[in-house]
Amino acid sequence: MSEQGLITQLKKEIESAYKEKAYLYRQIDELHSKIAQIDEKISVYEKTMEYIDPTITLNKTPILAKPRSFRTSIQKLVSQVFKANIERWWMLDELTIEMLKIDRCISVVNVELLTPKICLAVYNVLRKLRAKNMVEQKLLPLQGQVEHFGYIKHSAWRLKQI
Fold first, then answer.
1. Is the separation of the CB atoms in 122 and 46 below 8 Å?
2. Are the C-beta atoms of 160 and 87 separated by less than 8 Å?
3. Contacts of 140 (CB under 8 A, 6+ apart)
4. Would you list the domain boundaries of the chain?
5. Collapsing DSSP states into helix, strand and coil, what is residue 10?
6. Where does the source fall among the domains of life (predicted)?
7. Other C-beta atoms within 10 Å of 10: how many?
8. 3-state SS, residue 155
9. Which fold has domain 74-159?
10. Are 134 and 83 in contact (CB under 8 A)?
11. Are 162 and 136 in contact, with CB atoms under 8 Å apart?
């Protein structure tokens, strides 16, 4: 009897999967028709602009969303790194590299990935955590000539000791 119940359940699941697949195909078709309508609208607007002023050149490259620096939450990555080494003071670059390793599941991080944008994003999260009294910051003495963002790069961070 249990085999019969299993077969019935599997049939229901298969039917449900087919219905979901058909629904998704309908949505895809609707999206394709919307894209066609938008493309037609764009071409009409472009032709109209050419009639008004033939010297205008349009940038026809599509505007795409910029990729995110991290795939997972920066706060979550910070907590993972800090929990791995509770006593250690982390420099911003070291912390960011360790976070990139965890986020992208790689063992070695290329220095080119360490952009000022990524470091600044990590710094902003650390600053917010410091305001909540969750992490502590230690300013290190500057050596030599002060670089741009020197005050950010020359501070160490760690999880607040309770």
1. no
2. no
3. 154, 155, 156
4. 1-63, 74-159
5. helix
6. Bacteria
7. 10
8. strand
9. Arc Repressor Mutant, subunit A (1.10.10)
10. no
11. no
For residues 24 and 129, give the distance between their C-alpha atoms in angstroms, rounded to a whole number.
42
| Interatomic CA distance for residues 121 and 137, integer angstroms | 16
Distance CA 93, CA 120 (A): 10
Single out the residue of 121, 137, 124, 119 nearest to residue 82, CA to CA.
137
Structure confidence by residue, pLDDT tens digits, 15-70: 998 999 888 888 888 888 888 888 888 888 888 888 888 777 766 656 555 567 78
Residue that has been written with the tokens 């990935």 in this structure: 113
Q: What is the dihedral of CA 153, 90, 101, 129, to 10 degrees?
A: -80
**Calpha distance 110→20 (Å, rounded):** 42
DSSP state of 113: G
Q: Could you report the per-residue pLDDT of 103-119, keeping only the tens digit for each?
A: 888 888 877 778 888 88
